[in-house]
Design goal:
It is built from eight helices and two strands; from the N terminus they run ββαααααααα. By secondary structure, it is mainly alpha-helical.
Length: 226
């Protein structure tokens, strides 16, 4: 279970580790780190055998890590509370995978698709940005009216999406609107996820006559809807 952990001096059948559990959630995992390269190599070999047997959660062997240990890597210790665990706790996510920015995913075997040659001179039209977009003042009025706890979050997301729009050469105002308004109903519905982006959201969008494309783009962040 812990191929990097040191065996206990009192009982070699167990390793020295502990966890901190808060309200049923693991927020910290820590253990005395193994620094014996011979034992570490044996542990890696056992993990390799487990991988061949079909275990998808094994720790892969690391030759550079073993070399460092062989050359006198100093003893190590520390706490296993990374930024992902902190984010999971602060955002009340039940699964840490929902907040990992760079998740380690299993390899996906994708069948190679040979692109078809377009023999015509016609170009595929790109969906254009609507001309009847709400003004920034209208969006900010909605922010002041409907948001309190989520206000700062929406304004920050708006600025990030504006910068992304500039970076990729797309309409910055449109991107900003989608970011600022993406959770515009969240406080209004008392953070009830079952109501998010539904009737109350549509009513708020109606008040500024938001085009359907903007509404659909905002709704695209609700995986239960799209």
């Amino acid at each position: 279970m812990q191929p990097l952990a040191r065996q206990s001096d009192e009982n070699p059948q167990i390793v020295e580790q502990f966890q901190v559990i808060v309200n049923g959630r693991e927020i910290l995992k820590a253990y005395s780190e193994l620094v014996d390269p011979v034992i570490q190599a044996e542990n890696f070999n056992e993990q390799a055998d487990a991988a061949q047997a079909g275990d998808s959660e094994v720790t892969r062997s690391d030759d550079e890590f073993l070399t460092a240990m062989e050359h006198g890597m100093p003893p190590q210790s520390g706490r296993g509370m990374g930024i992902d665990r902190i984010l999971a706790m602060l955002t009340e996510q039940s699964n840490i995978r929902d907040v990992i920015m760079f998740p380690m995913l299993k390899p996906v075997h994708i069948q190679e698709v040979v692109p078809q040659t377009n023999t015509s001179n016609e170009k595929t039209p790109k969906e254009s940005t609507p001309n009847n977009l709400p003004q920034a003042e209208q969006a900010l009025q909605l922010v002041e009216k409907y948001l309190h706890d989520t206000k700062r979050h929406c304004l920050q997301v708006g600025e990030i999406m504006r910068a992304c729009g500039k970076e990729i050469g797309e309409d910055e105002h449109y991107r900003w609107l989608a970011g600022v308004l993406h959770d515009i109903d969240r406080d209004h519905i008392a953070k009830d996820g079952s109501k998010h982006l539904k009737a109350e959201f549509e009513q708020i969008m109606d008040s500024i006559d938001a085009p359907q494309l903007l509404r659909d783009d905002i709704k695209s962040h609700g995986e239960w809807l799209t």
